[in-house]
Records
---
Amino acid sequence: VSFTDGMESTLTPDTYSQLTPSMVDQYMESGGKTKNTSQYKIVDNYKWYAAMAVDAESVRELETGKTVSLRFPELSLDALEAKIVSISQEQDGRVVVVCSTNYAVEGIFSCRSAEVELIKKTYRGIRVDNRAIRIVDDKKGVYVNNGGIVKFKEVTVLINNDEVAIIKNEGTKNSLMYNDKVILSGRDLYDGKLLD
């Protein structure tokens, strides 16, 4: 890595557990102004740390040792797996979460600070507009257009917000499939109805 910023002896694996939100703020405000382009850092392994000051309430359920994902949108759209190694004491409603990982993002070793998204949990499934979800005979499901015939398919909602739901991909013949034509609206829909 072709630069140093004077923080190499301050921000170390031995000191990350002592970081407070105000210390992170102070460093971010300095912007690494002590940068010296005539020196070099030597990276001799791939383990590195990311420290972020975040709202304490948003990470209440997290604990040391838990695996999360980190995304650095300025560097890559891909998320990488990391382990929480430290969560500081709360200070003015915020905490410092420190994560370690062996996965590299191109450009990460050349920057000291970057925007980071902490992803607490990832859901995989089929994304469906909430307007499509119906309750029929006490079963949650969606109607699909199956060759001009309405078919009701029962679903398991993994998570949803105001707009969309993530549906568990059961992978069976009668379950919702990625290529199904989900019906968002309509009146008097029922299993077997012919569509105009």
Note: Residues 21-30 form the longest helix (10 residues).
---
Amino acid sequence: IKTFALWFIVLFLGLRIIGRPLRQMTEAAEKMDFDNLESVKFKVKTSGRNEFKILEQAFNTMVGNLLASKKNREQAEQAIRESEKKYRDMFDNAIEGIFQITPDARLISANKSFVRIFGYESPATLISEETVIAEQCFSFLENQENFRRMIQERGYVSGIEKQFRRKDGSLFWGTESVRAVYDSNDLLLYYEGTIM
């Protein structure tokens, strides 16, 4: 019975000494969420410097590092949003008409000035009437072979003057510049350019 009592006391103290800190760390880990890292702290209720204090310090250092990483990510995401807005505003508010068109002459995107220049109400309306726009707007479609040769030689064509036709049929003179955009395998993705 003495041996049993002694084992019981050792087991009870062992569970208390080992079990409580492990349970506390498990609870802290379960509470850990990337959105509430500020509230996660692991505190071992033991005295002195032992393995659990070392574990406590390591856990709290890890949480601190995750918190710093989270803040850095949030700052980077904010900088990206601001940069995207800046360049979206530049694209939307440019004086020149800016466009992107596929090699098979489908309009991908156009800015507000391009839409206005050609007499359309919105980019969506313009893109939905893409075959008409492609035929009348893009001078490089009139002479594909010459255009492709110039793009291969220089990477772009610039300053092509020609007449363009608006939605209402009226003509105007403009200057068109176009460059080819390739993927990492040098496959042509689309053309982008400007009309002034």
Note: The helical segments are 2-31, 51-93, 112-117, 123-128, 130-137, 144-154.
